[in-house]
Amino acid sequence: MHPIDTYIQSLRDTMKGADPVLVQDAVFDATEHLTGALDELLKKSPQSDPIVLAREAIARYGSPEEIASAYGKSATPITAAPAPSRSLLGRFFGVIADKRAWGALLYLLISLGTGIFYFTWVVTGASLSLGLMVLVIGLPFLGVFLLSVRGIALFEGRLVEWLLGSRMPRHPIIDGTKKGWWEQFKGWISDRYTWSAMGFFVLMLPLGVIYFSLMVTFMSTSAALVAAPFVYSILHHEVIQIHHLGYVVEPWVYYLLPLVGIILFFSTLHLAKALGRLQAFTAKAMLVKG
What we know:
Elements (H helix, E strand, L loop, with lengths): L2 H12 L5 H25 L5 H12 L2 H10 L14 H6 L5 H33 L6 H27 L16 H10 L1 H44 L21 H31 L3
Helix pairs in contact: 1-2, 1-4, 2-3, 6-7, 6-9, 6-10, 7-9, 7-10, 9-10
């Protein structure tokens, strides 16, 4: 086995049990640095044994234990969680100052658009790849499609980290020890991560529909309840009714509806935060190479 491959495997073994996100970034950085350093050494000493030069590059980079320790120290939370309030009311209404709740709300609202895009990209790309397989451009097209899947997975990971506050990989998964497109292509085909990412993109369509529907329904209902007494005062007639059954709310009840709307608004933020944690867990399980 090549010394760089051996080093990468040793690094994985050393970081066994650590956050898979940190392992993925550590492996990417090590592979990129060592292959780059080996290329530089080969340019300076083209007659030297590549194995010896690879070991020299590894010695300069540091031992797997040192690298694992450095990445372990960098594992800090993305955003500090607000200090919990002692009172139940404080925790309930304090969510309005929680950045993660607002970030999760934004993520859930845009998830319909991203889910449609991801689903369309995977279905269209996979269909075209299979259809073009009988032609000369079939394999190159499939390779570009698989590479795009990894790029989109990296983009989604950045969204999860920015909006949901969960640490995600900051580098793509590219094996620099495999030279040539054919070796890379075979690696993408056999890598479970490729299919896991595609499964995540397909799953994002129904999840996006659910997330978007819940957030829009609850937020619009909350706004309607808060605005109900103002609408009633302006129109001077009831605005809540059941078709042919007549009015079901007395006029004085309208002035209590804003309280219900405010409670629903804060409850929606809590729900968004909980769904954000669930989505971050799903993304980390399917978009991180274990």
